[in-house]
Amino acid sequence: MKVTYIDHSGFMIELVHTILVFDYYRGEIPAFDQSKKVYVFASHTHQDHFNREILDWQGDIQWILSKDIRIKPTDKIHQVKANSSYIIDELKCETLLSTDQGVAFMIDAEGVSIYHAGDLNWWHWEGENSDGENKAAKNAFLKEMDKLKDRTFDLAFVPLDPRQEKQFSWGMLAFLKSADAKLVFPMHMWEDYAVIERFLALDEAEEYKDKIVKIEHMNQLFTIKEGENHELYI
């Protein structure tokens, strides 16, 4: 299994028979075996998560797009809404409600379980939002995290946004406390990859250090292997 960090919240996952691309909006798509089925996901319409050029990609592709993306569904373009479940070919797709716009994805493909948050995060903005707005954002986020209790993911892609300053870690920590994920890829970092080390330096992050993948640059490739006890490592 291979994971490529494309840029921002964009990732490509290569399985034995399947390619999955999440929230592409710019950057280089790595070369891959063209005989594999491709599934392209877009969590919402924000320009840093969706680029209409994905609809021009050629090949054996299915597109799974949040309903806020205005497009006419076809036999290859599937629109999904929050808190729903879908079967597309042999792929299972579940969704959560984003605390910003659109959905978060929970995917099962070839026996691999994947969580991609999109913009589902604890969006606390000190000095920008009112106390009431920040409280509402917290409650909405934790409501979705409650749905992840007792869930296990092989791969998780979770926001770690440095713009939130002192609150940058809240969403990531809440996810890690709610779900069991073998490997967690931080995203939505705006190319400030030092935020990962800031997170790992926190006392609250100590027990999760072995799960967090250290991303250093765009188009970084990670080859993931499975141990004897089904643990995943790079």
UniProtKB/TrEMBL annotation:
Superkingdom per UniProt = Bacteria
Which organism is this entry from?
Dielma fastidiosa
What's the source species' lineage?
A: Bacteria, Bacillati, Bacillota, Erysipelotrichia, Erysipelotrichales
Q: What's the protein name?
A: L-ascorbate metabolism protein UlaG (Beta-lactamase superfamily)
InterPro entries, sorted: RibonucZ/Hydroxyglut_hydro
